[in-house]
C-alpha cells in the first residue's frame, strides 16, 4: 500500500527544487517562436539548465506513413539556409544570456521529431508555441497539442 505525505498544502512551499536540467525550445519562423526562445532562455538561466534549440523542417505531412514527402531540392535548400539563419539568431540570444546551448535541425513531422528528440536526449521541459487559429475551435495548434499529450516530460506552451 502506498503512503501519501501527511504535510499540508501550506507546508509544501519552498520545498520544491527544479528538476529542469535540460530544456528544449522548439522554434520556427513565427512571432510566437521568439517568445518561446525568450521563455526557454529565462528558464535555462534560472535553472542552470542546458538549452536545446530545435527546429524541424517539415518533410513529412501529419498522418502520413513513414516515407517523406517529395520536395523540390532547391526549395529544401532554401529551408536549410533559413534554418541556419534561425539558429544563428537564436544562438546569439542564448550566448548573450550566458546559456550553454545546442542547436539541432531535424527533418520529418514536427511533433513526432520533437517528441523523439526530447526522449532520446533526456529533455526535462519542452517549450513550444501555439498558433491560434481563429477559424477552428481547437485551442492549440496540431503540433503543440500532440507534443503536450505525447511527450514524456513537462511541456510549456507559449502563446
From TrEMBL:
InterPro entries: Rossmann-like_a/b/a_fold (IPR014729), Universal_stress_UspA (IPR006015), UspA (IPR006016). It comes from the Archaea. CDD domains: USP-like. Residues 20-157 form the UspA domain. Belongs to the universal stress protein A family. This is Universal stress protein family.
Amino acid at each position: 500500500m502506498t503512503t501519501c505525505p501527511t504535510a499540508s498544502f501550506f507546508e509544501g512551499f519552498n520545498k520544491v527544487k527544479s528538476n529542469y536540467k535540460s530544456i528544449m525550445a522548439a522554434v520556427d519562423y513565427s512571432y510566437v517562436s521568439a517568445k518561446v526562445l525568450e521563455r526557454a532562455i529565462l528558464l535555462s538561466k534560472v535553472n542552470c539548465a542546458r538549452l536545446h534549440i530545435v527546429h524541424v523542417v517539415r518533410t513529412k505531412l501529419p498522418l502520413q506513413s513513414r516515407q517523406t514527402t517529395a520536395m523540390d531540392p532547391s526549395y529544401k535548400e532554401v529551408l536549410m539556409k533559413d534554418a541556419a539563419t534561425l539558429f544563428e539568431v537564436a544562438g546569439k540570444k542564448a550566448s548573450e544570456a550566458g546559456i550553454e546551448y545546442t542547436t539541432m535541425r531535424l527533418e520529418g513531422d514536427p511533433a513526432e521529431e520533437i517528441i523523439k528528440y526530447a526522449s532520446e536526449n533526456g529533455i526535462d521541459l519542452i517549450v513550444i508555441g501555439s498558433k491560434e487559429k481563429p477559424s477552428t475551435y481547437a485551442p492549440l495548434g496540431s503540433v503543440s497539442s500532440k507534443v503536450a499529450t505525447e511527450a514524456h516530460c513537462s511541456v510549456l506552451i507559449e502563446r
